[in-house]
Predict the 3D structure of the following.
Amino acid sequence: MVQRSSLGTAQRAVFLDRDGTLIKEVEGLRSPDQLEVLPGVAAAIRELNHHGWRTILITNQPVVAKGFCTEADVATVHNKLETLLGREHAFLDRIYWCPHHPHKGFPGERPELKIHCDCRKPKPGMVLQAAEELNLDLRACWFIGDTTTDLETARNTGVRSILVRTGHGGRDGIFKSEPDFTTDNLLDAVRVIVTKTKS
Ligand SMILES: [Zn+2]
């Protein structure tokens, strides 16, 4: 990763959910062949890159704890995602992902990953780790996602949120958190951020 600015001053970032926000929602996605970047996503990330926002992927991948795929498979998927985005000159600054899942007792699972971790969204772990590693000012940050889990993660970390109508479109009904804004897709969400933060 290229460090595009000094870490001496607090940075601003946009946290991005993966499935249903950047890429097409596929139940239990485990192979790069299943990966489809949603329309306008590369342009949206390029826009954030251009305006000096750190772009940070934050995703739960319980498929690993469930034994459906390995850490290496997830890395392969993320490599392909970064390659496809890179072809369109769009870059993610960091990728954080949680391999855990709390509920034990299923065939084929990896018991060591079946834990109550601090990183699985809506827990704040991944956002706080990013904040520490990249010197982020969370009050200046945003979280964009398609589920109430993303909105709850934003709430738990004091970050503003935007719900996109792609993927689950907030209809998962798990948490009661409300977004600051709702838009049709990632590109429209990024336009809200760029407009709201123009100085
Ligand atoms: Zn975790």
The chain has a mean pLDDT of 94. The domain at 13-196 is CATH 3.40.50.1000 (Rossmann fold). Strands lie at 13-16, 54-60, 94-98, 142-145, 160-164, 181-183. The radius of gyration is 16 Å.
